[in-house]
Amino acid sequence: MRSNLVAGNWKMCGDSASIEKLVAELRTSLPAEPGVDIAVFPPSVYLAQVLTGLSGSPVAVGNQNVCDQADDGAFTGEVSASMLADVGCRYVIVGHSERRALYGETSEQVAQKAKQALLRGLIPLVCVGETEMQRDEGATLEVISAQLKPIFSALSVEQLQSTVVAYEPVWAIGTGKTASPAQAQEVHAFIRALFAKQSEQLAKGLRILYGGSVKAANAGELFAQADIDGGLVGGASLDAQEFSAICRAAE
């Protein structure tokens, strides 16, 4: 039985004071024993603050990115998977559409980032998704397949079992648009079928999150779909009450 996961991506938002307030509100608004896995991804400079503030709570902490190279080295500005594991992170986001579009990350780099995360005991959230133009051209499934192909080449079935996939239609991120439950379910089912080609057991246990303007108002209907196992939440995760309501919808 797959357990749902709700992940809050705080992106490049906040400062020490606002994050202290958000962490305090999360501690009071979320149940002590939620029926869903929960993780938040603060800006890396606030990782220590958030890890301390959420210590002893049911909320895991992750980073929004990781280096595709192993451990120490001359990679100025990067943070390795071993460093993230050392400070207490459990998850890491790889391949977010903003990293792909704004910073030119390739699917091959994303696969290497996922591999480095897994080698250090971190759980990678591998993001995939199409642009509005690609959807209009009917290329959604082709794009998703191409983005996941390097993942299947780089990772073993055993490693894939510790991986989470997040489907985030690029046209729905921060736009207020949301894929309909039927649209989202179609892509999630396709992703699960791709993983089933590697292993049927793997596919059954794979958690696939939906990301793209997830809110409390639409979370319940989205999470009710057979192949949607929670959400990668952006702006709504910066509001403790809204994020808590999304978590309750996933229970």
Automatic annotation (TrEMBL):
InterPro entries in the cross-refs: Aldolase_TIM, TIM_sf, TrioseP_Isoase_bac/euk, Triosephosphate_isomerase, Triosephosphate_isomerase_AS
Annotated catalytic residues: 96, 168
PROSITE patterns named in the record: TIM_1, TIM_2
The keyword Cytoplasm is annotated on this UniProt entry: yes
Gene Ontology terms: biological process: gluconeogenesis; glyceraldehyde-3-phosphate biosynthetic process; glycerol catabolic process; glycolytic process
Entry binding sites for substrate: 9-11, 174, 213, 234-235
Entry similarity comment: Belongs to the triosephosphate isomerase family.
Record protein name field: Triosephosphate isomerase
Organism, scientific name: Zhongshania marina
Gene: tpiA
